[in-house]
Fold each of these.
Amino acid sequence: MPHFISQKDDRPYSPPKPLYEQVKSYVLKNMESGEWPAYFQLPSEHTLVREMGISRMTIHRALRELTQAGYLERIQGVGTFVAAPKKQRKAIELSEIDDIIRRRGGRHQCDVHFLQEEPIDNDAAAMMAMTSGEEVYRSYFVHRDNGLPVMLEDRYVHPKFMPEYLESDFTHLTADTLLSQKFALLSHSHVVQAAVSNAEINHFLELETTTACIVINRKSWLGDDVISAARLVFPGNRIQLT
Amino acid sequence: MPHFISQKDDRPYSPPKPLYEQVKSYVLKNMESGEWPAYFQLPSEHTLVREMGISRMTIHRALRELTQAGYLERIQGVGTFVAAPKKQRKAIELSEIDDIIRRRGGRHQCDVHFLQEEPIDNDAAAMMAMTSGEEVYRSYFVHRDNGLPVMLEDRYVHPKFMPEYLESDFTHLTADTLLSQKFALLSHSHVVQAAVSNAEINHFLELETTTACIVINRKSWLGDDVISAARLVFPGNRIQLT
DNA sequence: GAGTGGTCTAGACCACTCC
DNA sequence: GAGTGGTCTAGACCACTCC
C-alpha cells in the first residue's frame, strides 16, 4: 500500500497531485504490473476508503473517471472490475480540405459553380429529412490546390437553420467552417465509398480519363436535425486522406 | 429558469435524470439556443447554486464534465466560459472488418492465401523501418461476407515484436484483433486512397471487371516502433465504410 | 439483510485573479 | 478583500445484486 499525501500536510511550494489523481495512478499501476489483470474485481469503495484513509467521494471520483476512460467497468450492486481488453475502433481523422491543402504547402482556392435555392429532389430529400419539392439551398464548389482541382463539393443546406447561407462568401471560408462556427455542437456522420468518375466529375475536376475517386457522404447534425448534407469527391490520383 | 426535479420528490416508477445531468442539459440547451454564445461567461458556481437550489458539488460535477467534453473552459479565479468554436477534425471511425460484416448481419470468413517468412522488399522495408532483405512475416488474407470477398489484407509483421505470428489461427481472430490483444497501447496511422483494381486484386477479390477500390494503408505503432503495416483493399461496389 | 455502486448535500479549506 | 473555480470530507439516502 503506497503512501498517500494528504493535501493539508504538504508545503505550498510543491503542490501534490490531487488525491483522486493519486488513487487513479494507484489503480493504473496495479493494472500495468499485472497485479490486477483483466476482469479482476477491485476492492470495494468502502474497503478502499478504509485502507487508504480517503473519503468515499474522492475514491468514487477516481474510479468514475477511470470508468469513463474505459479502464474499469462498474456494476451497481456487484462491484468494480478491470475492463476487458477493448477491441478499439480505429479512427481516421478528416481535416478540412483547406487545412489539408495548406499542410501540404499548397494554396487553397474555391470556385463557386452555383449557389442557389432550388426544389429538392427525391434522393436529397431523403438525406435531408425534407419532403420532395421543398425549397433547399444548394451549392456546388470545386476546391483547388495550386490551381489543380482536388475536391468537388456538392452540398445541400436546410434553409430553416441557415437562412444566410446564399449570402456567404465561400472564397475565404469553407462551408464546413461556416457551419461549425454557427453551430458549435454540430456533429457529423460519414459514409465512405470508392467510385469511378463519370462525365460530370471528369468535367468539374478536369480529369482527362475515368479515374477512381473517394466519395464521402457527410451529414451534419444538430441534435436530431440534419443541417446539411454534402457529397465530397476526391480524385484518387491527386490527393490522399491522412 | 427550468424546473429541476429533486431526487427525493420523485416516485420510484420513473427515475428522473440525475441532477448533474439536468444541469448539463440546461447548460447545453442555453448554448444551442444561442443564449450563451461562444466566449460567454457562465454564471458562477455560487450563482447557479443559489438560482437552481442545487448543491455546489453537483453543479461543479456538471460543469467539470462539460469541460472535459470540450464544451466549456474554466479558469480558476476567473470564471467559466463557453468554449471557442473548435475547428473540429471530423473523424471517420473504422471498425474491424469482422465487426462491420457482423453488424450488417453477415457471416465473416477469412481465407489465408499465405502466411510465411520472406525477405522484405524495398517499399515494405521503408514502411516497416527495416532494412531491405531482412526477414519479415507476411500474410495475405481475403475476408468474405457471406462468401463474397469484401476485403483484401496484405500485411507485414515485424518478427521481433510478434514472433508467434505465423503460428496464429486467423480463421477466428483477425490480425488486427490479435495485435490489439497483445499490445494494449497500439496506435494506428492511416492513409486512404482510391484506386482501380488491377489483375491481382481482381483475382483475389473475384471481381469480373476493373472496379474502383478504397485502399487504406494502416501502420500500427507501439511508441516509435512499427509493429505491422497492412494494405487493405475494399471493392467500392461491395462495401461502405461508416 | 448485507454488500455494492450512484447520487447529493452542507460545509470546509485552498489557489488563483482582479482591483 | 471579494470573487472565482478545485478539492475534500462525513454523512445521508438510494437502487441494485446476491443469498
Note: Chain B touches chain A through 46 residues (CB under 8 Å).
Amino acid sequence: MTETIVTNKDIYQELKRRVLKGKYNIKMRLPTEEELIDEFNASRYSIRKAIKQLSDEGLVYSVKGKGVVVLEQTPQTNELNLSLDQVDSLQVLNSTHDFDRITLIAGFQQIIVDEALSHKTSFAVGIPVYAIKRVRRINNKNAVLDINYFNAQLVPDITPEIAKGSIYSYIKKTLGMKIAILKRQLRFERAGQIDYEHLNLGIDNCVGNMVSFAFNDDGRQFEYTESHFIPDNFIFNQILKF
Amino acid sequence: MTETIVTNKDIYQELKRRVLKGKYNIKMRLPTEEELIDEFNASRYSIRKAIKQLSDEGLVYSVKGKGVVVLEQTPQTNELNLSLDQVDSLQVLNSTHDFDRITLIAGFQQIIVDEALSHKTSFAVGIPVYAIKRVRRINNKNAVLDINYFNAQLVPDITPEIAKGSIYSYIKKTLGMKIAILKRQLRFERAGQIDYEHLNLGIDNCVGNMVSFAFNDDGRQFEYTESHFIPDNFIFNQILKF
DNA sequence: GAGTGGTCTAGACCACGGT
DNA sequence: CCGTGGTCTAGACCACTCC
C-alpha cells in the first residue's frame, strides 16, 4: 500500500479535516470503527480515542448500534468578542490574542489570611498571601479587573514587575511548578465600589465575575482569583453531552 | 477472599467515597493502579476509567511517573443559589431542584425563519419554527426569561399546554427523540426591552444570557434557546485540566 | 534504575439500532 | 437477525518522576 505515513496523533486531525471540509457531511455517518482501523492501520483504541476528541469538540456524536453521526455546524462566534474556552485562563488569553491591551497594577501587597478572606478564598487562616489587583485595558477600555490571591508559601517572591507581566509564566518557568487543575465559577452580580473605581462600566451596574481556584500537581491550592469584567465583551463556550 | 461483590461500576463510587471521607486525603496519593487492580480484581482499563471520572470531577489529578494526587477540597457553593452544572439544562433543573417555581407562557406562535432569525439561530431560512417565550418565576421573582425556537419539522405539534410543562419531556417521551448534544454560550449583556418587560430586574440593567443550540442523535439542530436571567442568582461551574 | 501513569495493540463479549 | 458502538481483559512498551 502506498499509504502516507500516519502517526496515531494525526488520525484525529485527519478526521477533523474531513468533517470540516464536508467529506463526511451531515446526514452521513463516519465510516465504522472497523473501516477506520483498516484505513489508518491502527488499533481500535486509537481510532476510538480520535473520535472521542471530535466528540468532545461537538463535531460528531456516537450512537450505540448506529454509528458516529456528524453534527450540523454552528457558526463560529469569534466575531469581535473575546472567547474564553476550555484551555484559556485570562493570563493565557492575553498572550494568545492580539488585542491592544495593557495591564495596570492597581494594588500589590502581602497580607495574612483572616477569617473572612479564608471563607471566600478557602485558604487556611493565618497563611501569607499576595493580594494583587490588576486592570486589563483592552482596546482602550478598562475591561477586566483581576483580583488575585496567591499562597505566598507556594508562590514566593512575586514582585510588581512579575505581576505586570505574566504570573503564570513566572510560576511555570521560574518556579517550575506544574499547574494541574482549575475550578471555576461563573456568576454575574451587581457591581461593587471597586468595580466602579477601576472599570469603564458606563451606565452598566453589573459585572461578570469569574472565580477561579487553581491547584498544583501536589494537590495544593495556590491561587484564588476573581476576574470582574464589563458586559457585552466576553463569551464562554461549553459543550454538554447526554 | 471474603471480598464484597464489587461491580466495575462501583469502583468509581467506592474510590470517591474514600476520597471524600478522607481515607485518601491531601498529601497522600491514591494506591497505584497495580494495587487497585488487585484490590478490586478488575482490569487496568476499569481502574483507569474510574480514576478518570474522579479526575473529571476535580477530586484527583493524575501525574505521570508520580501517581494520582488528591486535591484540596473546595467548599460546596450550593448555598441559596441555583447551580447549573454539567448535565442540567434549565428544563432539567426545574424538575431536579425543589424551588418554589412557576412557568408563565409569555408568547407562543409558529413562524417562518427569515434572514435575521436565521443568522441568530442558525436555522435555515424558510423553515417553520415554534417561537415560545416563557417566564420562570422562582421564589416569587421573575428570574428567568426563556426564548425558545424549535424546528417544527423535527419537533412537531407543540402546544401551549406542553410548553407550560416540560418540552424536553415531550421531546423525549412522546416523540421518542434522542437529545445528543448541547452547545452553549454564556454571555452577559445590557438588558433589552423584552427583559424589562418580563423580568424583575429592579435597578439592575444587565442580564445573563445563556444561548443553547441543541442537536438530536441524527446530528440535526432542533432547538435554539436564549435564557435571560437576573443577576446574583445563578452560578455556573466548570473544571479545566492542564 | 525502579516505579509510576500514558499509550497502544489484540481480542472478547455485551447492548442497542435497524431490518 | 446482523452490524454498530460500549465495555472489559491481558499484555506490551514508552515517558516521566524520584531516589
Note: Chain B has eight helices and ten strands.
